[in-house]
Automatic annotation (TrEMBL):
Main location: membrane
InterPro entries tied to this protein: GPCR_Rhodpsn, GPCR_Rhodpsn_7TM, Olfact_rcpt
Keyword entries, A-Z: Cell membrane, G-protein coupled receptor, Membrane, Olfaction, Receptor, Sensory transduction, Transducer, Transmembrane, Transmembrane helix
Any one GO cellular component localisation term in the record: plasma membrane
Family assignment from sequence similarity: Belongs to the G-protein coupled receptor 1 family.
Localization terms from the record: Cell membrane
Name of the protein described by the UniProt record: Olfactory receptor
Origin superkingdom: Eukaryota
Residue stretches spanning the membrane: 25-50, 102-120, 140-158, 204-226, 238-260, 272-292
Originating organism: Myodes glareolus (Bank vole)
Signal peptide (residue range): none
Membrane topology summary: Multi-pass membrane protein
Domain G-protein coupled receptors family 1 profile intervals: 41-290
One Gene Ontology molecular-function label: olfactory receptor activity
């Protein structure tokens, strides 16, 4: 395309999940319900941990941060999507789009790092139980959470700055419900080679680095648990990891399917559906996964109900 046909883009049009008029109200009600469940469920987990002194341990410090991250992660995309469903223009400003991209990447990376930290916590608790209080001190927990925040913002800043270097043509329609990396790169007039390279190098290092920590932690956990003589003891040890493993499987499975493939093979239709899984469904399910399979949380909830 000749340079003369390039135009400055002041805004983008978010086409959403579906363009069929008869599907708009059902989609609005569905995503509004999931958003309400997500916000209320994660806020409840956070409030419960803060209010229960016996939950002021490293594991629940990380879980409370995960709950806040899930609230922020979903709030980056869903409110704008709900607004656009009944909007005649369905627009988002250029700077608003970059801001949405930044915070989306930031909170996705934050969840990634927190899941790795939580796996390390389970490794220390099961493999080195006697040294747990001396290794995972309050100071170390705070340092790990701060590091997760710093790395997440640096990761998001890198990819957002690269996205800001792209030039967009007159066609400013994004076939998605938010400003995601691949849909934006698809409509760019300029080469996205550097963006793709960074996703497949720095992005893979960030995601796979955390995944390696998780896999290594669970390899040691499985090895330690298999040495427990009683079946009841083995089950009890594994049950403390079940909820975390469920979240890890859903989050990394969908994330890998979307981003770690060539841009040319990216399917917008399939990408929208899979993106919903880790941006909306997983954050909504996290409170239920961690509360229904966690004795400490259920005990804290019972005490809270009795005080009412």
């Amino acid at each position: 395309m000749d340079n003369s046909s390039w135009t400055g883009v002041s805004h983008f049009i978010l086409l959403g999940i579906s363009t069929h008029p008869d599907e708009q109200i059902p989609l609005f009600l569905l995503f509004l319900l999931m958003y309400i469940i997500n916000i209320s469920g994660n806020f409840f987990i956070f409030a419960l941990i803060v209010s229960a002194p016996h939950l002021h341990t490293p594991m629940y410090v990380f879980l409370s941060n995960l709950a806040l991250t899930d609230i922020s992660f979903t709030s980056t995309t869903v409110p704008k999507m709900l607004e656009n469903i009944f909007s005649s223009t369905k627009t988002i400003s250029y700077m608003g789009c970059l801001a949405q991209t930044y915070f989306f990447i930031c909170f996705a990376a934050m969840e990634n790092f927190l899941l790795a930290v939580m796996a390390y916590d389970r490794y220390i608790a099961i493999c080195l139980p006697l040294r747990y209080p001396t290794i995972l001190t309050r100071r170390l927990c705070i340092q790990m959470v701060v590091l997760c925040h710093v790395l997440s913002h640096l990761h998001a800043l890198l990819h957002t700055l690269l996205m800001g270097q792209l030039i967009f043509c007159a066609d400013n329609r994004i076939p998605h419900f938010f400003c995601d990396l691949y849909p934006l790169m698809k409509i760019s007039c300029t080469s996205t080679r550097l963006n793709t390279l960074m996703i497949h190098t720095e992005g893979i290092i960030v995601i796979n680095g955390a995944l390696v920590i998780i896999i290594a932690s669970y390899a040691f956990i499985i090895s330690a648990v298999l040495q427990i003589p009683s079946a009841n003891g083995r089950w009890k040890a594994f049950s403390t990891c079940g909820s975390h493993l469920t979240v890890v499987t859903i989050f990394y499975g969908t994330l890998t399917w979307i981003y770690f493939r060539p841009l040319s093979s990216y399917s917008v239709t399939k990408g929208r559906i899979v993106t919903v899984m880790y941006t909306v469904v997983t954050p909504m399910l996290n409170p239920f996964i961690y509360s229904l399979r966690n004795g400490d949380v259920k005990k804290a909830f019972s005490k809270w109900v009795k005080r009412l």
